[in-house]
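RECORD TYPE: inverse folding
INPUT: structure tokens
STRUCTURE:
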């Protein structure tokens, strides 16, 4: 069960870093207070840092380390005009390798939820695809 596994890794990482743990605790308490103690969808959406913690957990402890896809149309590889991925070709995407790439995530082996802050996500969005 991937959800239980991810939660286990998240709890492990929180146990390792009291500062991150405290920041999550404060955010959860503030969100619950804002929503009168009710855990609703809107309450959950207010927990931005907790979402970053989950995203960082999934980055470090990748559930699917390799993605298998089929190319749906011819795709010229940007920066390599002589290389075209043909329609119907099977493509293997090394997700775990991207997740540990220091060019994408500085200090790539360190648990850092700020890797998924809105500004850092915006800087990465589409750069490597």
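DESIGNED SEQUENCE:
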């Amino acid at each position: 069960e991937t959800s239980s596994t991810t939660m286990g890794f998240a709890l492990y990482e929180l146990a390792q870093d009291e500062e991150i743990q405290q920041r999550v605790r404060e955010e959860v308490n503030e969100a619950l207070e804002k929503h009168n103690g009710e855990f609703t969808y809107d309450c959950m959406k207010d927990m931005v840092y907790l979402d970053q913690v989950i995203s960082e957990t999934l980055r470090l402890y990748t559930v699917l380390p390799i993605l298998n896809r089929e190319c749906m149309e011819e795709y010229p590889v940007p920066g390599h005009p002589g290389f075209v991925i043909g329609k119907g070709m099977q493509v293997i995407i090394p997700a775990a390798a991207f997740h540990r790439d220091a060019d994408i995530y500085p200090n790539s082996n360190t648990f850092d939820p700020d890797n998924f802050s809105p500004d850092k996500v915006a800087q990465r969005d589409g750069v490597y695809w």
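NOTES: The longest helix spans residues 18-34.
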